Each structure stands twice: as C-alpha cells, then as structure tokens.
C-alpha cells in the first residue's frame, strides 16, 4: 500500500502470531512508539502467544514493512526503456504489492491498472486461450502471483512473437525461464548454483543497474563486429575485383601474393584490433533493439562498403592501365604505387568504418588511444615494407611526390564517405526484396 502523506510504500502481513514474530525486528508499544525487538521482548511475546493458545484462542498477528526500492533500479529501468527495451516484472507477490513496486520502479505508469491488461495474475495468464495470450502478452507489464511455469510461458510467448527475450532470476525455480530465454542473467551473490548454470551471464554484484551496462556493452560488441565486417568486405571486394579485372585483361595481377598476404595481415589483425576495441557510447542506447531476423550486414553497411570499394577499384584500375604514362615510371614502380595506394586507402577507410551512420568519423577519437596507436603502427610498417623490404615485398622505393600522391588519393575516401552518408537507404533489407522461393523453383 502507498501512503498518501509521505508517498512511501508499505507491505502488510497477517497470519499465525508465532510465524509473524519470527520475521519481525521491531514492535509498537501501547503509545505507538517503535522499539527494537530484542531477545527479552521476543520471549515475552512468545509467552503471551502461548498463554492465549492455552486458553483455546486463535492468535493472529499483524506486521508491516516499508519497502525501499533501490534507486539504481529505477535508473536502470529508465535506461532500458530509453534503449527501446520493454521491461516486464514477473513476481510471486500479490497484485497490490507488485503494482506498488512496479509503479515506484517506473515499470508501470500511474494510470495503468489491471483493467487495461497491464497487470495480470499468473493464474489468469495461464488460463488464457492460446490466441488471447499471444494477443495480450505484449501489453502486460506486471504479472503477480506467478509460478515458474507462468514465467516460462511468457518467455515462450514473447519468443513466438519474434522478440529477443532476456530474463533475470536468482532461484532454482527460475532455471526453466533462464534456459528458455535468448539471454539468461542470474545473480552472483543471492543466485543458486542451478540458476547460475542455467544462465548465460552472471551479474556478480547482484545490482540490477548492471543490466544497463550489460545492454550497452552487448550493443557495443555487436556494433564493433559490424564495423569490422564493413571494413573487411571493402578490402576484399576491392582486392578481388582489381586482381580479377587485371588478370583477365592484361594477363597479370598488380597485387602479388606476398602483398595480398601483407594486406590481410595488417587489416585482419591490426584492423580487427582497432575497430573491435572501441568502447561503448551513450548513442548506442538511442538505437532501437536489433530484431531476431534482421541481417548482420545492413543497408547502411552495403551503401558504405560498395561506395568505398567502387572508388578504390576505379582509382587502382586507372593506375594499372594508365599509371606508367601518367607518372612516367616503369612497371615495377607503378605496381608499387598501386600496392601503396591500396594499403593507404584501407588505413584512411578505417576511420570511416568507426561510424556506420554518423558523418563525423572523428568524434571521440581522442579517447581511442589504441585505435590511433594501431593506425600509427600500420603506417610505419607500410613505410618499412615499401622502402626497405624491396626483395621480400617485390616493391620499389617511391619519392616524396609519389608518396604524397598515394596519401592524397587515400585521403579522398574521407569526403567520399561523408557524401555517401547523405544518401538515405531503405530500412527494409535489400535481400528481402528477392523472392528466394521463386529462385529455388527456377
């Protein structure tokens, strides 16, 4: 119950006097003062209860407790809701206690009650017909008086509707729902061993606020994977196309096996390390959750990587067929120009890959010390490869004019990336327009 005077929430119990007494730490005296219940006081109350029982009287005790919701819980709920996550509370408490706590936490709005379907009891949810349950499950915010089966049933219904479901729990009874959920989170301190084994993530400090941290880091890892995939596909598409076209038209390839191995080494290893270690930002919480069936490579990624790959292909094929006449150099120097330009294009494009959608790719770069360090190491290794490992890399030394040309061509990927991000893309995935069933029949 919520007191109007001070806006505090109290839970009330009544029952067998000896059982209520075991759970109490304070008592009210005849004047209404609250006193601590020590061993002497507890023994005195026991004697009163036993005396009443000896007189064939039924002794009932009443108790209450003010419920303090951890302020971090409300903040965590708000963070999750801000990130587009729908938070539901499933509890064994009675409906009034559950409603009061859910309202204080921000899970339930003040005007939401049982009448509009936001609050249900487990038995009611359990007895719904299948169609009615599927229809109402999205709207339910609080389920009171629920059993472990009710929790499992809700998880199954939400998954059937295509939602990605995360469940928190600490008891043995929670293990079926933790296993069924896409992501099970158990509590490290209060959680049972069964619950921990059934979960995917263990929250060591038992702090509900850690859920927002888990959500932010999860999105960060997913976003970093997308960044690296976009970057890596750009490298592979450009390298494959350039070598294929050159081999078909001229019978030779500009990028040797050693050079391609070098590109893969610095891009797969150092590039992955640079992009995969970006720390989470609050802007990740502004995006809606990723659906279960959404592709890993989005339309935005296709737009970015195809534009950069096309630019690199055009420039490098121009150098392949016209480079010797443009710069007045021999074939070996021209091949070195192609190799050096290609690598530097990837270095500059690594900055573009930092932000899939935002135009300002340098935002927060001063906090990414590892990223800047890896970029510096990559450039140094490339200089060593071109200038000092001629026999190993099959390259020729370049003069300052040729180096500045390679840098200028590579740096052009920045304004190209900025312009490309001005082009809107449809939200519906590209490949969803293809009728795969029809293609199979053909």
UniProtKB/TrEMBL annotation:
Example GO molecular function: ATP binding
Membrane topology: Multi-pass membrane protein
EC number: 7.2.2.10
Membrane-spanning intervals of the chain: 233-251, 257-277, 370-389, 401-420
Reactions mediated catalytically: Ca(2+)(in) + ATP + H2O = Ca(2+)(out) + ADP + phosphate + H(+)
Top enzyme class: translocase
Name of a matching Pfam family: Cation_ATPase
GO cellular component, one term: membrane
Predominant cellular place of this UniProt entry's protein: membrane
Keyword annotations from UniProtKB, A to Z: ATP-binding, Calcium, Calcium transport, Ion transport, Magnesium, Membrane, Metal-binding, Nucleotide-binding, Translocase, Transmembrane, Transmembrane helix, Transport
Record domain Cation-transporting P-type ATPase C-terminal: where: 253-422
Localization annotation: Membrane
NCBIfam families registered for this protein in UniProt: ATPase_P-type
PANTHER family listed in its UniProt record: CALCIUM-TRANSPORTING ATPASE 13, PLASMA MEMBRANE-TYPE-RELATED, CATION TRANSPORTING ATPASE
Name of the protein: P-type Ca(2+) transporter
Originating species: Abeliophyllum distichum
Origin organism lineage: Eukaryota, Viridiplantae, Streptophyta, Embryophyta, Tracheophyta
């Amino acid at each position: 119950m919520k007191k109007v005077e001070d806006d505090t929430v109290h839970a009330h119990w009544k029952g067998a006097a000896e059982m209520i007494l075991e759970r109490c730490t304070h008592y009210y005296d005849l004047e209404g003062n609250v006193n601590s219940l020590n061993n002497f006081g507890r023994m005195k109350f026991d004697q009163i209860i036993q005396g009443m029982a000896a007189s064939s009287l039924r002794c009932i005790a009443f108790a209450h407790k003010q419920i303090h919701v951890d302020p971090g819980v409300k903040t965590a709920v708000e963070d999750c809701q801000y990130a587009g996550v729908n938070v539901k509370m499933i509890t064994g408490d009675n409906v009034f206690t559950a409603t009061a706590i859910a309202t204080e936490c921000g899970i339930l709005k003040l005007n939401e009650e049982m009448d509009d379907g936001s609050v249900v009891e487990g038995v009611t949810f359990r007895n719904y017909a299948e169609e009615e349950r599927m229809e109402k499950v999205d709207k339910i915010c609080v389920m009171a008086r629920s059993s472990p089966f009710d929790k499992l049933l809700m998880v199954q219904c939400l998954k059937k509707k295509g939602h990605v479901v995360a469940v928190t729990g600490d008891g043995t009874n929670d293990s079926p729902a933790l296993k069924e959920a896409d992501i099970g989170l158990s509590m490290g301190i209060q959680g049972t061993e069964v619950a921990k084994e059934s979960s995917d993530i263990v929250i060591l400090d038992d702090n509900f606020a850690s859920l927002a941290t888990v959500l932010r880091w999860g999105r960060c890892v997913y976003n970093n994977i997308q960044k690296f995939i976009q970057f890596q596909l750009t490298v592979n598409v450009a390298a494959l196309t350039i070598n294929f076209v050159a081999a078909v038209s001229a019978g030779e390839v500009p990028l040797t096996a050693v050079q391609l191995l070098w590109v893969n080494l610095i891009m797969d290893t150092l590039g992955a390390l640079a992009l995969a270690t970006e720390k989470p930002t609050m802007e990740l919480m502004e995006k809606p959750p990723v659906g279960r069936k959404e592709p890993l490579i989005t339309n935005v990624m296709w737009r970015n990587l195809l534009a950069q790959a096309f630019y690199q292909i055009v420039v490098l094929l121009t150098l392949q067929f016209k480079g010797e006449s443009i710069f007045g150099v021999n074939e070996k120097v021209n091949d070195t120009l192609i190799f050096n330009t290609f690598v530097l294009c990837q270095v500059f494009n690594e900055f573009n890959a930092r932000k899939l959608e935002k135009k300002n790719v340098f935002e927060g770069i001063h906090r990414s010390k590892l990223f800047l360090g890896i970029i510096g190491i990559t450039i140094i290794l490339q200089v060593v490869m071109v200038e000092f490992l001629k026999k190993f890399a099959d390259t020729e030394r370049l003069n300052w004019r040729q180096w500045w040309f390679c840098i200028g061509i590579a740096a052009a990927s920045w304004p190209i990336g900025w312009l490309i991000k001005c082009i809107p893309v449809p939200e519906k995935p590209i490949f969803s327009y293809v009728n795969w069933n029809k293609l199979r029949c053909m």
